[in-house]
Amino acid sequence: MGFLDAVFGQQQTYPTVGSILPDIAKREIENGRLPRLTTDNIFLKKGEYCCYIDKALLLVEKTTKTYRHVRTSAPGLFKGQRISFGQGKPIEHTETLEFRGILYITNKRVILQCKENGFEKLHRYLTAIKPYSNGVELQYGNKTFRLIVPDGALVNDVLLLVN
What we know:
Elements: H1 3-8, H2 23-30, E1 50-75, E2 82-106, E3 109-113, E4 119-122, E5 128-131, E6 135-140, E7 143-148, H3 152-162
Antiparallel strand pairs: 1-2, 1-7, 2-3, 3-4, 5-6, 6-7
């Protein structure tokens, strides 16, 4: 079952992301060892190393509210007068926004580097993880990040090895 099938409960086509993680690093993770990958795109702290780099797509739900006005009018008591009645009904519309980026997992942090809505979270604040075949949900306290990645189980394996 795919990530979005479980979230939305329906079969649809969703975007996919290609993998940039080297095959040798993938095999190391599958064998229970954390690889040490080199990168110049993030600043690593003392004693920190990168063990996962791959493309990701962050999904953010945005709800917009519009008002639909229903009006009616009737003749008034005097000639040339009209009485108008009306009310507005709120209509909510939810759309899913997609933000492409690169997901980095170090031995201390999870970093999503993208133009908008990127994040950096320490592993000690990770509350829950839910892997899917094509995605993963990462929960930090009351905030959940939904990511489409090439292999959600691999992200889960890395985070289990780190913690």
